[in-house]
Target: Secreted protein
Amino acid sequence: MRRRKRPRLALAGTAAAAAIGLVGLPMPAFAAPDDGSGSSPSATSPGPSDTPTLDSNSPTAGPTVPSKTPGEGPTSEPPDGSGQDTEPVADTGYVEIDSVTPKLTPHGTLTVKGRIVNGSDHALTHSRLRLEYQRTALSSRDELQRWASNPHADQLAAELSTENADASGKRSSKGNSTGDGGTAGGSVSAAKTAALSTSIAPGDSTGFTFSVKASDLGFTTLNPDSNWGARGIAVELTADDGTKDGLTTTAPSFVTWYPHPHLKPSRISTLIPISGPRRTDDDGLATAKDLDDAVTGDGKLLALLDGADNPAISWAVDPALIKSIKTRLNPKPVSPTGTPTSSPTPTESPEADSELADWYKKFLAAGQRRTVVALPWADPDLQALTKSKLAGLLGPAKNKSDLVTDAFPRAITSTAWPVFDTAHEKSLRALKKVGYTNVLLSSTQQRFDVGYTPTARGKLPADQSGLGTVTADATLSSLLASLGRDGPVQEPVADDSDGVTLSPVSKGQDIARIIAETATITHERPSDPRTVLMAAPRNFTPDGASLRQLFDRLDSIPWMTTTSLKKLMAEKPDTTETFTAEAAGGALSAATLNRLVESRREFDEFSAILAHPKVARDHLDRELVGLASAKWHGRDGWKAQVTDVVHRIASDIQSVAVVKGSPVLLVTGDKAKLAVQVQNNFDKAAHVVVRMNPETPQLQGGTSKPVTVPAHRGSRVEVPVKGLANADVQVEVSIESTGGHQVGASTTRTVRVRADWENIGTAIIGAIVAVIFIFGIVRTFRRGRITVTGDDLAAAETLVNSRLETGDMPVIRSELSGDRRGDRHDPDTVRARHGRDQRGKHE
Model:
């Protein structure tokens, strides 16, 4: 059954180097095939067998495990590939080398393990594998590169074929070169030819192992001090793939011949960046979900801790990662008014928090066993940041490296790490200005007037900043990058001059190339040990098995030892180097970063109304530095992310505003209070005042008392005003900080001023009361006294007498002020009073 193919990326050596900023030196072609095992290398080692063997995918065939020769290579070897589920990385058949013996001694065995992978749509038949090599040493690093790109072997070591031909005995050497210990056209003992699978189906693979004794290869043991060193080897595959010319492809590699020379080993240091996810929240911290994903499954942080745990590997740690983890593990909830609360915020996934806490604990423990370099906040692209108008953020970003020293007290804080091939003299001076004393550069930007690989520790002249330097070897760094999980993949490349088609370069080939490079570096000056550095790119996610295999190899070779970055920096600097500002480019665009400058200024003004303005500004600055992070190199979506932040800041600035209510407000009298509703849609509390500014003088505006508006809530605010004259006045309503800084856009309301309504009303009411009072007086005088006629008296007398006679009329007696008046209804009294009244009338 055909397996799913991995997406392919055609990438030549120079293009691969450019992808990580290492253009300028001869570079290898990269590939990142998956060995499909998912396990660490098995504990086997090359042995003395001289028979090439095949490990097919059939149940009856199994891997050949040679016995171990003492002192021959590391104690671990990767599996042969037998039965592994290999996903093709090219749409043709090719050879994938998994491992090569790193050090071949006179009594040792050369072991090459790998697979034939069929990525084509046609079965591979009549396959033949040839292990070829070159007897003479590759004496320079340029020769290593030439062999990697165009191998021309002059000897045949062994052969595998689908034909069961007996190839025992002697075979003629290939080519006319004269090897050490041989003559032109001489011969070398070749192993017996073993049979390959008759057919390899599309999408399938079959493993193979070559094991050849060193004594059969003809390498000389004479004059070991000059004749030791890297040799080129190659595995050539020919097969019928259904095309007219058939398939011919070659996988070049290297082995180091080591007849025990006298030498002083050089040193190699390794630096790998440890940082969190690129995208952050608006507080500049990684989200809880992204952190959880990074420490679980196939997450990057989990892979970094697993693959880069070797104490020989130094770490460059981003303080934003530490802050993000500590904040997510120990959140400090804030009330709507901006005041921290004592109760913790419940987490959405306690299991995820547990995994994050476990990873962080292991991370802290592992960091104590190695050199740690403290990066500035978010590991910014230093060239882009210093060139932009946000350059002022570099100093605060560097100061946040104390988060790293809190976790790792011995961390180095004085070394800056620009993205390779982007540094300029101006940026170096800016780095020195903020307190850096050392800078890590690529060897492509440094010039040495020597014919060998110089030591990595140096110092720039005073006119080029005078900074101390740590130089990362461009070739070694690019090879290290290829050992990442997402290492670049190269499809077969045809050499037009010689018709050689190269197979995609595997991680096993890259490891063998690194070992050969170290041998050649020491071979350049065997009595002058130097230190070299290989540094991984910013987005490096290591393939754990490959890194472990590499450091197993490095620990086994006698011509190179591993060392820490701290020891490298303690070495005496080489002052013969000079720096070239002719950077290859690749830095993030300063013009794009400048789009954030105006947004930052507007947010600074807006933050004046927040309960904690300094905290809000710090969160934004952290986010902006994160947008300048070197982790965005080579990643899609960076400019879109900058645009999103610009739009979000513009929205934040408008998030505290006066709610649109009635467009007309009424003011009566010369003093009044107008009420408006202020809504805060920001995630932090705001301290505001509301100001009303009339456009005409009929109304005198005012400012409210300070009001705290909780996050995501609204508050009623009253503004005192004074009406001076009747009019409809347009009033500008704005929100300001307590310091008088206006926030957001103002709104306009219409206010109807009726300043004399109270006086008019009082006058009207007073007039009404006066009219009623006068009317009452006039009516009283006009009515006068009541007149009683004689008939009235006679009728009254008759009524009284009748009631007295019947007993219905009681005698009423009362005393008022000591006078007796109870007889006023007596008939005699009534008649006497009537007589007096009549006499008064006649008179």
Remarks:
- The mean pLDDT is 79.
- Residues 505 and 737 are 63 Å apart (CA to CA).
